[in-house]
Specification:
90 residues
């Protein structure tokens, strides 16, 4: 192996893959609220720790979140790791 090669030492990281930080959404006109949702997905969680989600500090157990107008903070936590993104819905 090459000197300085440290990928085995790199800590795993929980990363929110949906939505992406800075995403902007618009509620489609004429679409029922139950269909105007976005997926909550994260990568890098330890296999033995479920991902827990909060939206604006409120826990949610769903993997899809209904779009609500305004600025929102979405946070995922698992096994002592966390990630947070901010989105806007118009």
């Amino acid at each position: 192996t090459a000197a300085g090669h440290r990928t085995a030492d790199a800590p795993s990281r929980l990363t929110i893959v949906s939505p992406v930080d800075g995403d902007r959404y618009q509620i489609p006109p004429g679409v029922a609220a139950r269909y105007a949702t976005i997926a909550l997905r994260a990568a890098g969680a330890p296999a033995d720790h479920p991902v827990r989600w909060t939206v604006d500090g409120i826990p949610t157990t769903k993997t899809r979140w209904p779009l609500l107008k305004g600025a929102h903070r979405i946070r995922a936590t698992a096994g002592g790791m966390s990630d947070e993104v901010r989105i806007e819905v118009k």
